[in-house]
From TrEMBL:
It comes from Tsuneonella suprasediminis. It holds the Pfam family Beta-lactamase2. It is an enzyme of class 3 (hydrolase). The gene is bla. This is beta-lactamase. Residues 47-267 form the Beta-lactamase class A catalytic domain. It catalyses: a beta-lactam + H2O = a substituted beta-amino acid. Gene3D superfamilies: DD-peptidase/beta-lactamase superfamily. Belongs to the class-A beta-lactamase family. The lineage of its organism: Bacteria, Pseudomonadati, Pseudomonadota, Alphaproteobacteria, Sphingomonadales.
Length: 298
């Protein structure tokens, strides 16, 4: 083949054009690429799984990587308590009492009710809506401890998520450890099964959906990036700064577009350096909310 100026320019133009075209042209590929870009500016590792409950379509990034679960376990804990009650295996109206020494550093509801005590129902709601750590420990005790919650996950087909400790020790997950961890894909599938796919009694799923909608801790995370007219609920997680650990921030939940099927999301973020969670994590999760909107075609 003879090369001249015209063929050389044409070939060069083709190479330039090819370099400008993304390798993945489909919606899934484009959104996954956007998740990677969000991670770049987040100050750490971002794990995401989005699941469309209507057709099973998913979008993920680092979705199979393990992260500290932090307080995101509390949604499943509330589901377990509500499901047992619906099946007659737990009395949610039973009043529990605790001592001042049982109070964790973050326990707004438990501190307020130290003298009067509270029902298991009230404690389960406080664990979900307020992320009250003492309330969570009390409900864990009522259902059989961390191993009982892990077994609940196994019964739902989740062989990844595991809880090994109570608050606050469950937040301490050093590099390479699997205790008290989950993956975005495992948690998204589990949450979808609990809320929308018959994993628990219908009344338990409905109550948990309502509690997640009432949750007050995630307004700056994924829900901040969703359209205001959508119905959404979540459960957040925050590791604090355990020695030797890269801080983790998390948000799991659901988003229901107007006249469309629910999208379940699970987002986890681990800071690059040892210390507290990245200050950019919330903004990254809010951007994931924008990805959810694009995922639905809105």
């Amino acid at each position: 083949m003879k090369f001249n100026r015209r063929t050389t320019l044409a070939g060069t133009g083709a190479l330039i054009a090819g370099a400008c075209v993304p390798l993945q042209q489909d919606t899934s590929g484009r959104l996954t690429a956007k998740l990677r870009l969000i991670e770049v500016g987040s100050g750490g590792t971002l794990g995401v799984m989005l699941l469309n409950t209507a057709d099973g379509q998913t979008i993920g990034h680092n979705s199979g990587e393990r992260f500290a679960m932090c307080s995101t376990f509390k949604a499943s804990l509330a589901a377990l308590a509500l499901d047992r009650a619906a099946k007659g295996a737990l009395d949610l109206d039973k009043v529990l009492y605790w001592r001042e020494s049982d109070l964790q550093s973050y326990a707004p509801f438990a501190k307020e009710r130290l003298v009067t005590g509270a029902t298991i129902r009230e404690l389960a709601r406080a664990a979900q809506v307020l992320s009250d750590n003492t309330a969570a420990n009390l409900v864990l005790g009522a259902v059989g401890g961390p191993s009982a919650l892990t077994q609940f996950w196994r019964s739902l087909g989740d062989d990844v998520s595991r809880l090994d400790n109570v608050e606050p020790l469950l937040n301490v997950v050093l590099p390479g450890r699997v205790e008290n961890t989950t993956t975005p894909v495992a948690m998204a599938r589990t949450l979808a099964k609990i809320l929308f796919r018959g994993g628990v009694a219908p009344q338990a799923a409905q109550t948990l959906q309502q509690w997640m909608r009432e949750t007050q801790t995630g307004t700056k995370k994924v829900r901040a990036g969703l359209p205001a007219e959508w119905v959404a609920g979540d459960k957040t997680g925050f590791s604090g700064s355990p020695p030797g650990m890269q801080g983790v921030s998390a948000d799991i939940g659901f988003a229901i577009p107007v006249d469309d099927a629910p999208i379940v999301f699970a987002t986890y973020h681990r800071a690059t350096t040892v210390g507290p969670p990245s200050p950019m994590a919330d903004a990254a999760m809010a951007q994931v909310g924008g990805i959810i909107r694009q995922f639905t075609g809105v």
